[in-house]
Amino acid sequence: MFRCQMCGKVSGAGTKSKKIVVATREREYKGNMDEFPQRRGGRFREPRKPRDRGGRGHEIVKELMVCASCAEAHNAKQAAAEAAAAKAREEALLAAAPEVSEVTDA
Q1: Of the candidates 9, 7, 10, which has an alpha carbon nearest to the alpha carbon of residue 74?
Q2: DSSP per residue, 31-90
Q3: DSSP state, residue 97
Q4: Do 89 and 97 meet the contact criterion of CB atoms below 8 Å apart?
Q5: Residue 51's Cα: distance from chain center in Å?
Q6: How far apart, in whole angstroms, are the C-alpha atoms of residue 70 and residue 88?
Q7: Do 54 and 28 touch, CB atoms closer than 8 A?
Q8: What are the sequence ranges of the domains in the chain?
Q9: CA 41 distance to own-chain centroid
């Protein structure tokens, strides 16, 4: 049993919760490009450790535990928002593209 964090209803016993991501943020991870100390050779030699270059990524800021119906509604809303954003990007690319004038040889 759990209480849905979106609708506030208490679920029945034995129902599984779903976790949805509500907020994320971009994050830049610092790398470790320092030189490693000289290792001793021999029987107990340690293998070389790979260097961490760091990078960019996303972190979860807020996550909710919700019931199945709220999770489906949230996923549908997310899909609609992503489709609208893709359509807006496509229209912006078309508007920014230079117009091609037709040249005819007569």
Answers
A1: 7
A2: PB-PPPPPPP-STTPPPPPPPB--EEEEEEEEEEEE-HHHHHHHHHHHHHHHHHHHHHHH
A3: S
A4: no
A5: 24
A6: 27
A7: yes
A8: 1-23+60-95
A9: 43
Report the Cα 92 to chain-centroid distance in Å.
Answer: 23
Task: With residue 27 as reference, give the H or E element that holds it.
Answer: strand 18-29
Count of alpha carbons within 13 Å of 50, Cβ hemisphere only?
3
Residue among 14, 15, 101, 29 nearest 66 (CA): 15
Amino acid, res. 43: R
Amino acid at 96: A
pLDDT per residue as tens, the chain (106 positions) = 899 999 999 998 999 999 999 999 999 988 776 665 666 666 666 666 667 778 899 999 999 999 999 999 999 999 999 999 999 999 988 888 776 555 555 5
